[in-house]
Amino acid sequence: MKCPECDFVQSDRNARCVKCGTLLERDQEHRTSTFRRRTVAADDDAMEEGSFFEQVIFFVDPKVNPFFFGGRVIVFLIFFIWGWKFILTPLATNEVGNSFFHLVNLPFHEAGHVFFGLLGRWIGSLGGTLGQLLVPIVCLLAFLIKSKNPFGGSVSLWWLGENFMDIAPYVNDARKQELMLLGGVTGKEADYGYHDWEFILNEIGLLRYDHTLARLAHDFGILLILLSFAWAGYLLYKQYRNLDLT
After folding, report:
1. Considering the entire predicted model, what is its pTM?
2. 37-72 confidence digits (pLDDT tens)
3. What are the extents of the domains in the chain?
């Protein structure tokens, strides 16, 4: 190989000219090839990272059954209307707590008391809230990972938001203790510790922040419900484009 700078002829194996030290063409090509391979690998990694949303969060079957699509639209409309009813109703009215869905959440709330009660009285009191929050989270993960059904995941996200809104009036009542509790009594009429959030907050010195924490839970629930609307709506749009009409 001849050096392009000094014209010195030398072995093809040399990476640099032994006379002037110029980088030889063969090594340049090798480096260029290596750079290209690394660039392609980086692009492949970026595509894999980006495709997580397409493969999991926004996954849609290539061919969507129109019958299933119609059912999902009906489900979306029901939860959309129901969700806006909760969102537009003030926290103080306890609209969520008086709804049918409160009865759905109640068994998981009570089961949480039993399960987490094994860890002590305070965590057992908090366990009711944890129980009713964990169930929709588990459903959300199961729909995404196990069933590959993100629309079901969006409904689970709606349910999680509804649970935060369901908890908020209970937290808000920690000092007043006027809500009717399970058993037909209010917190004022029951022994200390019967009202979960009065006990939870009082034991850690945060009872005076009950209204603030309730508002945070309520607003976070609204945010989750709005996100579920956007998620489900986008999925339905993609499914509509993939309808199998043959």
Report:
1. 0.78
2. 565 454 555 445 557 767 889 999 999 999 999 999
3. 1-57, 61-241
